């Protein structure tokens, strides 16, 4: 009986801990969703239900342009990062184990480097080269950490790759380029999409590195929202958060569905 009571206590303790963690993670999200329907112009004071926040979500000055800038920077940085990370993962697969581990550690180093160090280093680097800071330097900065994340994702996919299909394609008369584009790339496609979405989310959400490497007027969405929040959180800002949250959730669900066939094949 005592053992049964202990098991029940541990079970309820685990449930309470889980509930506390979920509340800490999602209660702020739920509150933001609720206040996105606030009639008041001050986001933290509830005065009534209204859809004006969603109707006027892009009426704020410069918000739409900042959104498009974030989307463009994220798309370009993600594509370049996934391309470089995939090529690195494929190339290192043929290296000797000790040398490969050293190279993998160097490429993955930005994963454990604080953002403030990366941001300051890149800002000083661009300044030393006398590069005009703008969207180009932001894309280059995002590729610094994007390549690391893409490389880690693609390294796992490349390690599970069966290279006999590549050899079989060559035996059937395909050129190396055809074997890679028509055989290897389709096999890696789910991991490529997941890596792209992962890097895109990080690039779209980045603030500190973008803030220190952007030029005057080259504002992305996080920086624009930060500037507006100094004057209070408006319902339009909360509405934009809800829209972006739903889009991100849809992307995560799509990525999980893409991963299922890859996991089933392994």
Structural write-up:
- With 266 residues, the protein is mainly alpha-helical.
- The protein has a domain at 61-233: MetI-like (MetI-like fold, Orthogonal Bundle).
- It contains eleven helices and no strands.
- It has helices at residues 2-35, 52-55, 63-92, 97-107, 115-128, 135-159, 164-171, 176-205, 208-213, 221-229, 235-265.
- Helix 3 runs parallel beside helix 6 (135-159).
- The chain is globular, with a radius of gyration of 23 Å.
- The model has no long low-confidence stretch (mean pLDDT 83).
Brief overview, please?
The chain is mainly α. 76% of the residues lie in helices and 0% in strands. Helix 3 crosses helix 10 and helix 6 (135-159) packs across helix 8 (176-205).
Q: Determine the CATH superfamily of the domain at 61-233.
A: MetI-like
Q: Given the helix and strand composition, which structural class is it?
A: mainly alpha
What's the total number of strands?
Answer: 0
Distance between the termini: 45 Å
Number of helices: 11
Beta-strand portion reads: under 5%
Report the sheet with the most strands, covering strand number, pairing sense and barrel closure. none
CATH class of the domain at 61-233: Mainly Alpha
SSE order in H/E notation?
Answer: HHHHHHHHHHH
Rg: 23 Å
Indicate the CATH architecture of the domain at 61-233. Orthogonal Bundle
Average pLDDT for all residues: 83
Which fold name fills CATH's third level, the topology of the domain at 61-233? MetI-like fold
Report the principal-axis shape.
globular
Poorly predicted parts: none
Query: Helical residue percent?
Result: over 70%
């Amino acid at each position: 009986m005592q053992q049964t009571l202990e098991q029940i206590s541990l079970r309820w303790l685990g449930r309470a801990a889980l509930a506390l963690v979920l509340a800490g993670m999602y209660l702020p999200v739920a509150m933001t969703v609720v206040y996105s329907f606030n009639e008041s112009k001050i986001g933290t004071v509830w005065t009534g239900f209204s859809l004006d926040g969603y109707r006027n979500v892009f009426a704020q000055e410069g918000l739409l342009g900042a959104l498009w800038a974030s989307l463009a920077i994220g798309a370009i940085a993600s594509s370049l990062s996934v391309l470089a990370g995939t090529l690195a993962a494929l190339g290192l697969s043929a290296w000797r184990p000790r040398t490969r581990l050293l190279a993998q550690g160097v490429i993955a180093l930005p994963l454990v480097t604080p953002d403030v160090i990366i941001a300051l280093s890149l800002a000083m680097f661009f300044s030393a080269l006398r590069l005009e800071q703008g969207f180009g330097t932001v894309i280059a900065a995002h590729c610094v950490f994007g390549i690391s994340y893409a490389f880690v994702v693609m390294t796992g996919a490349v390690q599970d790759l069966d290279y006999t299909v590549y050899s079989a394609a060559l035996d059937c008369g395909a050129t190396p380029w055809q074997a890679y584009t028509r055989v290897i790339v389709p096999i890696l496609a789910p991991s490529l999409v997941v890596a792209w979405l992962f890097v895109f989310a990080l690039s779209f959400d980045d603030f500190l590195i973008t803030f220190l490497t952007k030029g005057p007027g080259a504002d992305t969405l996080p920086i624009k929202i930060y500037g507006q929040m100094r004057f209070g959180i408006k319902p339009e800002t909360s509405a934009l958060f809800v829209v972006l949250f739903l889009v991100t959730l849809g992307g995560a669900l799509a990525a999980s569905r893409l991963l299922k066939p890859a996991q089933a094949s392994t």
